[in-house]
């Protein structure tokens, strides 16, 4: 659809584009990203014929730009620039109707049913059908941007050029617009080339991206393939962290502050606090956490860890929501709290910590095995209500863990827990084989994300060996306390 070959451009003696080459297929949503001054807007202006092409070739559907008249170009392509002047005295619909100019003929062209349908469809795509009679100048900046996008869509182009199309829009407006634009492009076979300021928007919506640096091509390809932390760090001169989007098969990016305050070790002053029905760890600063807890599951930042004791007859259709209400009643923010439940007495919790230079960690464990299970033979269990039990563990590390280290810490802790159960000959009551855990265990691994870096936490590492021993010893003691309390009943 669009071919750009060896395109260069200068403003006076300043080279702003240097032999840029790429092509865009029909129906593709193609993004252009890069820092300010990298040549993004200049490239779009060359494609839209706003600037004369002095070096290289640009063609649309095989036809060089130089062979296209203004009206011919307008039938093939439409453009939404970064900044627009408000046309005072026009309604929204009248503004959008200007997009039909390229399809009208004669000195006094008649307004056709096709013109009306194109305008109405464009207004619907951008979500402004209900404001078609409103004066354009009374719209917000984001709404005016959507109106001008509708004008471009009303041209019914084959190629749509957008320079930061979500400029002036709030988050909900951006999402609605880009979702509608993507759907419309797919339905019409419309080719879209857009300059994006926001990397995450480009990653989520673009089929491919062109990354520019100092007017040159730094990368070209699918976002998942080319938008690497190393590349983006080099292009934007700032450290970037890449993570998987939780709902779409796309990468997401965050900038990392370069100057972070170095903080003192945490574990020296961290101790569990016992409430009537919970054991609580309160951190003076947020910790990065990977958790399977009822509240705060997945990766989170948290300041509080609440292991709550419930009765043996606890039964709730929405335990998570009930736990959130519990946390709020007791002054804990559910958004910053890891919340677990157990049926065992939380006053039997075991707290072990080891403070050594470069490798300090602590473990809090409560243990009950009324619903012990052998994971390898759990398929043999009959569906039934869970019996009282649960082994809950909270691990805190003074250090910086990678995502791999978080996962490996979970593995190490699980293996150490299984070993403790074997040492105490805890069996699955259904299969009569050694249990590996309980059916309702929860685990949270937390790290200060300051100080020494730990890329791994398996048993071949110093950190992994420390965690394995602490979890094993704490679980053994917690099981013993559980058995002693049962013996007193």
From TrEMBL:
Domain of life: Bacteria
Entry keyword Cell cycle: no
Transmembrane segments: none
Domain ABC transporter intervals: 2-239
One annotated GO molecular function: ATP binding
Keywords: ATP-binding, Nucleotide-binding, Translocase, Transport
InterPro entries named in the record: AAA+_ATPase, ABC_transporter-like_ATP-bd, AdoCbi_amidolase, P-loop_NTPase
Pfam family, one: ABC_tran
SUPFAM superfamilies: P-loop containing nucleoside triphosphate hydrolases
PANTHER family the UniProt entry points to: HEMIN IMPORT ATP-BINDING PROTEIN HMUV
Name this polypeptide is given: Vitamin B12 import ATP-binding protein BtuD
Protein source organism: Geobacillus icigianus
């Amino acid at each position: 659809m669009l071919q750009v070959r060896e395109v260069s451009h200068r403003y006076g003696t300043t080279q702003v584009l240097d032999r840029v080459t790429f092509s865009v297929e029909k129906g593709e949503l193609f993004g252009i990203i890069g820092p300010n001054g990298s040549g993004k807007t200049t490239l779009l202006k060359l494609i839209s014929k706003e600037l004369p092409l002095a070096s290289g070739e640009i063609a649309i559907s095989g036809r060089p730009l130089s062979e296209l008249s203004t009206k011919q170009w307008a039938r093939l392509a439409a453009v939404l620039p970064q900044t627009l002047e408000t046309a005072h005295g026009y309604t929204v619909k009248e503004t959008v109707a200007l997009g039909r100019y390229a399809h009208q003929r004669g000195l006094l062209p008649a307004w056709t049913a096709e013109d009306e349908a194109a305008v109405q469809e464009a207004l619907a795509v951008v979500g402004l059908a209900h404001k078609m009679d409103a004066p354009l100048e009374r719209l917000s900046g984001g709404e005016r941007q959507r109106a001008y996008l509708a004008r471009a869509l009303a041209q019914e182009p084959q190629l749509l050029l957008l320079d930061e199309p979500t400029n002036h829009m709030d988050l909900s407006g951006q999402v609605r617009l880009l979702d509608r634009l993507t759907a419309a492009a797919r339905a019409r076979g419309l080719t879209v080339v857009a300059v994006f300021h926001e990397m995450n928007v480009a990653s989520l919506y673009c089929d491919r991206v062109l990354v520019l640096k100092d007017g040159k091509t730094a990368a070209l390809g699918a976002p998942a393939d080319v938008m690497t932390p190393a590349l983006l760090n080099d292009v934007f001169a700032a450290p970037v962290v890449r993570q998987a989007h939780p709902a779409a098969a796309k990468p997401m990016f965050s900038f990392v502050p370069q100057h972070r305050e170095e903080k003192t070790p945490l574990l020296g002053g961290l101790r569990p606090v016992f409430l009537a029905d919970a054991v609580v760890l309160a951190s003076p600063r947020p910790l990065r956490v990977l958790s399977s807890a009822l509240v705060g599951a997945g990766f989170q930042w948290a300041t509080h860890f609440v292991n709550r004791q419930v009765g043996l007859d606890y039964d709730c259709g929405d335990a998570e929501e009930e736990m959130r209400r519990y946390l709020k009643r007791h002054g804990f923010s559910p958004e910053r709290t890891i919340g677990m439940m157990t049926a065992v007495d939380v006053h039997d919790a075991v707290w072990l910590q080891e403070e050594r230079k470069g490798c300090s960690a602590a473990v809090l464990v409560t243990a009950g095995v009324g619903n012990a299970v052998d994971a390898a033979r759990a398929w043999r269990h009959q569906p039934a209500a869970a019996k009282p039990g649960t082994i809950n563990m909270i691990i805190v590390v003074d250090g910086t863990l990678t995502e791999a280290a978080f996962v490996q810490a979970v593995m190490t802790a699980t293996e150490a827990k299984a070993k403790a159960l074997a040492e105490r000959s805890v069996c699955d009551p259904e299969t009569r084989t050694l249990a590996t855990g309980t059916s309702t265990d929860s685990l949270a691994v937390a790290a200060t994300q300051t100080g020494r870096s730990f890329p791994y936490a398996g048993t071949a590492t110093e950190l992994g060996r420390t965690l394995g021993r602490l979890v094993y010893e704490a679980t053994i003691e917690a099981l013993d306390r559980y058995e002693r309390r049962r013996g007193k009943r």
